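User: C-alpha cells for this complex, please. No commentary.
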Amino acid sequence: MPKLNKFKIHIQTGSEGIEEPARFCFNSHVLPLEELSGGTKPGETLEGGYDVNSVAHSMTLVGPEKGTWSLQKIKVDFECENTPPYSVEYPAVELDETTELNIWKDPPLPTFDV
Amino acid sequence: MNIITKFKNMFSSKDVGVEEPAQNNVADDITNITSEPVEENNPFSEPETVVRQVIRVPEVADDIFPPVDENKVLIKAQPSATSDQCLFMLNRPLFSGHSWWFPDFESAEGSLLAESLFSLEDVASVLVNEATITITRKDKNICDWKSLGSEVGTVLRERLEEGEELISQKIISEMPSQDEIQEGIQKAIDEEVNPGVAGHGGLITLEHIKGNTITIKMGGGCQGCSSADLTLKQGVHSSFRKFVPEVGAIFDETDHAAGLNPYF
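Assistant:
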C-alpha cells in the first residue's frame, strides 16, 4: 500500500447540491476537505484537498448528512510517495446520507510499448 | 481497565483488578486523551460508526492507444507488482468473448499463438483473455520484462500479421455453454472451495461470469486477509479447473480494504 502525500479533488455538482461542508473518509476517519475554492451548489465546482501523509487503505467521498448530492464529475489528483502523480476521473453519481463514493485507486502499474 | 494497565499488571506483583491512579501513569494519560469525546474543532474525528454503503463506479478510462492506422498492431506491456507476470494489452481482440489458459506447451497444441509464445525460453504459462495476454515466466528471479516483453511483442505481431487462427478450433468448438460453466463453478464452490475456507471463516461467492471468464468475491475471513492471493491462486484456481477444465481467466473482485476492520 502506497503512502499518499496529498491529493486534490475537483467535484462538479449536478442538479442537486448541498449546503454542508464536503467531507472525505480516509482509512475510516472522516475529515473535512481543506484549501477549498468554489462551491457545492447546483452547477458549481468545488476544489479542495488534504495533505494526508499516510499509508492509504481506503478513501471515500462522504455523502451529505441530509438530502441528496448529485455529482456530475469527480476528478482526483493523487501524489503518492515514490510514484509519479496520477489522476482518476469518475462519472456522474448520487450520494445521500447512507452512501459514500470510493475515490481511492492505487498508483497505476508502469507500462511500456513492445 | 485499559489494555496497557492489564499488560503492565501481568508483569508486576499487583493484582490484576487493581488500577493505578491515572494521574501517575503516562500511558494511562495517553489512553484517556484518545478516548475523550472528539472536539468539534478537531478534524481528526473518531472512526465513523455509521456504516454507509460504499459506491464503486468504474473510473472514466482514457484510451491507452493513440488513434493510428487500424492495421498497425499496438502492444503495451504491464508487469505485475511482483514481476512474476506481465500483462500485454493489444489494440485488437485475440479471443472475443472468451479466455483460455495454457498451463504448458502441450496444452498449446493447435493454437498457433500459444505455440509460438511457448517457443520463447522463459514462458511458463499463457492466459489469453479478449484483447490481452498474461505471460507467467519460469525464472522468478528476473524482474526486468523489457527483453522477454520485446520477444513476446515480436511473436504477437508476426502471428497477427499472418492472419491465421490464433486459438485452436478444437478449443472453440468444445467450449461449454455459459450456463454449464456456471453450474460447474457453483458446484466447485459449494462442494470444495467453501468447505475448505470455512475453517478460517472465509466465504467465496461467484460474482459474475462472461463466457468462460469467472469473477469471484472473497468474503468473511478471506476479505482483507494477507493470504487471500495464495488461497485464490493455489486453492480456488485449481479447484475451478478441476471441476470445469474449460474455465479461462479467474478474477477476484474483492475490495480487500473495505469494511470497518479489514486485516492487512
